[in-house]
Fold each of these.
Amino acid sequence: MRPMNLKNNWEFNVLQIYNYKNLGKLEGYFKFISDNFDILDGDICEIGVFRGYSLIATAMLLKELGSDKKVWGFDSFSGFPTYHENDDLLKFNYLYSKGEISLKHYEDFQLNMQHKEFVSGGSLSPSNISTSKDFSETSLSTLEKKIDYLGLDNIILVDGDYKNTMNDSLKAKFMTVLMDCDLYESHAIAFPFTWERLTPGGYIYLDEYYSLKFPGARIATNDFFVDKSEKPEMYPLKSMDFERWFITKNLNKV
């Protein structure tokens, strides 16, 4: 079965798939894949799949490029696990006091809290501050049906707790990682697993490094890279009103 070719923006919207053909928040991620898929070894990895919004888009792009690379999608498909103390929203105060986020970032966090509290009419926590709540409203079987409907055979879904699925038995190599797992502990488990398997010159897109909802993502990222030469880098803002960050693994890494 040949993969379905979506031509119109409304088709992507109806199927709830990121339109990688348009400019948007993931344009740097998809540009890196397009520019390097035939240069760097390894597959693509996504940590935090939810309903496949970006995962399916990545698989479609690889088909369009004529690449035989696979897309690995890691998720528990059951919502957030137990929260770490670094996921407490008050940790944004800590980040600002330590100079790890800018004044604008901190003010945007406070404004987001104000708006969210007004809309929700109650107190906020990591479990309800996102529009997707705790991400439990998803279905692995529904996602698999969507993948089959689109005729995609280049996606490998890894279902389960990261503590169990991210282990030495998996020998895959990655050229690109989309880190979108929100919480501190999820990042703390995923970083060593993916970094060890990331090809030199490879790239990690940090979806929640500039977050107004999940402070644990930034704390875990800074913790992991504190003793490494590689550090998070920000894309030029251009027309974007929100910071986008990434990390590139040094080419001299072995």
Amino acid sequence: MKHLVIVSVMVAALLAAPLGGASPYFLITPGGTYDVGYDYGSRLSIPDEYRKPMGRIAFTAVYETEASWTEVLHARLQGQAEIVPAVYIRPPGTSQEQVNATNQRLIDESKPIAAAVGVRAAGFPVSVTGQGARVESVLDGMPAQGVLQVGDIIVRVDGQPVTTTDSLIQATTRHAVGDHVMLEVHRDDQDLSLDVVTAESPSEPGRPIVGITVSTYMFDIQMPFPVDIQSDNVGGPSAGFIFALAVLDGVTDGDLTRGYYVAGTGTIAQDGTVGAVGGAAEKALAAEEAGAQIFLVPKDDAAEAYRWVHTIQIIPVATFDEAIHALCALPPGPNPASADVPTPCE
């Protein structure tokens, strides 16, 4: 009975507000699947002399939209949409244009890293370098406010070198929420040692953050041939894992997807670590609705991915190598692009 009272109060509160008026919430809904490859789209470009037959593989996305009270009420009643406070999507003091620019910067950096991971896994020599993580913005109300400044170059965390945004994120996430993190920073002509306490990410419970956006300073990748990946209007780093798999499939013999329509989500680090993302439930549902049979997801997001789907096979992975082994272990599927045993599976 207590739960019924709580629900009644919530609905009454929503009905008391102007139903057509703006609410302080965003809705997160399935945003569709985006094929990467030659036969199912043109989002991957590899020189002809290196191109091999590919299976069908797609990254997934979510829509983030400002919600009216009517839309919030509908989402609460119907499900299959996540309701989140607007401050989780657009922090106070941050414009939507700044959010969009940050997301574009993140996906632009994830593409060459993904290409490097895929090409390196295929056996080609690759070099990824940077000279630190440059602070692009400091979020209001977060621990970094008043400690870090835009333009700071973070070069060490807890005494360990930081060369890229990826290495900074990995070093930070090794901490627990509330831990002290020691940062060594270049600021103008000064070298500073700064102590920052981590806070919990508002959008990813349990994940420690200090409250900054960053880019890799003096970022450079050297590969034996160019790889270009198109992402339409999708932003953020969460397609990197799938980009890397698609690149590997595109430069090796055989069909890494084993004849299945494979979709997925996850960030990718230079060392092949597959990182957690937001919206796993919505992305898995988008994949299922698009007809995908396999959904690859970071292990930390696996429980979330199961929330609304019924038929798609969820495969949790923690690393790029785990994903390759999981695909190689699948029985042959219905639509192989090549009858050859995939090179990564040999």
Amino acid sequence: MSFGAIIIGDEIMRGKRADKHLAQLIAILRSRGLTLDWCQYLGDSPELITSTLKRTFAGRDIVFSFGGIGATPDDHTRACAAAAAGVDLVLHSEAEAEIRGRFGAETTPNRLKMGEFPSGSTIIPNSYNRICGFSFGEHHFVPGFPIMAWPMVEWVLEQRYRHLFHLQPEIEASVMVYDSAESILTPLMEAVEAKYKRLKVFSLPSVGEGGQRRHIELGVRGAPDEVPAAMEDLKRGVTELGGSWEAHAVPAAPDVAG
């Protein structure tokens, strides 16, 4: 199953806040042997959010959605999810209990709206302030605040998808190529990818920023048993095409913050 992300908020689209969720979600998944396959950014447009969710609900991907589940007029995600799924938006009993447990006598109808989810949803506990997120099928909706969202994502992964952890180990290796161009290397890349069915070949060119020598990072990622042989084919091919290469160390995956 593939993993996707939807990151919602006008504040991101207009540059008032910088997104932090994408990099952190990649790190959280990587620490469990998983990878993110796609990400989409959306403004606070009910039509756009609804149409996007209608499309992703129809697929099989595991999707994490960040933002828009509060109770202010610009928080549309809960209602859009219900509309996209064709179900009612209803007050979830467990979410209501958490809200009442936090606010007590100060519980208001507006605060209870934060517990209204598409019918059939399950809650995602929020240990920070007890305002739950929700899961609907393979879609998981969390707040836009990183301090709340990231532990909630980890909780979902641990509770729902442990059977996928490290199921398909993946490694990466690459070299720095000089005295060549991507157009020259493309047939070599295609040949290596055709030969090794469980690998992807990649190239990352640099135009020489900061006084660096122009180069291309050329490598493969995928099945550990295929990577060494594929890299030898790439290095040999670069040399035969008149280029030069040198070893390139891939940095370790970053630690995941809670």
